[in-house]
Specification:
This protein is mainly α. It has helices at residues 13-47, 52-71, 74-77, 84-112, 116-139, 142-146, 149-172, 176-192. α4 runs antiparallel to α5, α4 packs parallel to α7 and α7 packs antiparallel against α8. The longest helix is centred in the first third of the chain and has 35 residues, at 13-47.
Amino acid sequence: RGGVDRSPRLGLRQGINRAVLSKHMLNASVLGILLIIAVYHLVIYAQRREDLPSLYFALFCGAMAIRHGLTTFLLQGLEVGWAAGDYWVLVRLEYLAAPICAVAAGAFFTSLFPGPFLRRFTEIWCAGGAGLLALLTLSSSIETFTGLLPLFNVHIFGALLVFVTGFVVLARRGEPLAKSVVGATLILGVGNI
């Protein structure tokens, strides 16, 4: 899609430059934190192969890092993606990262709280929905799948709603880990939308 990607800013050059630099520093810090957490959990998984939650959490953080780097234009700030062909690849990656986050989160939560309902939900809604969205993203034109952004958001929001509801139910039953996971899930899920 053509056009202006950001609204114009009015003000003194120094003030605008300071605000833009501050925003880039914050976004780069979040990206760095996500990447460090992902690598840390990959190292933990490499040391203990039976620790699948660490692998799934690393994949989730990696997908969130990719999505964050693309939605905040950090990669374009590093002179990546300005050519038309590169830009379309970045847009496809951005749209693929959201369903991958849902699959990784579902796998992570299923490994923490094993049970038939959560496993089936992860298989059908998270993985099945992600597969359909990935197929749509890879096989259709940019205009088609970017016009279907609400469909991607419904996928993420549906997963978030079921996970948070399930964790609240588990927390009310006295599951100590569920109590601490509810807030973090809300923050990360809303950040992904």
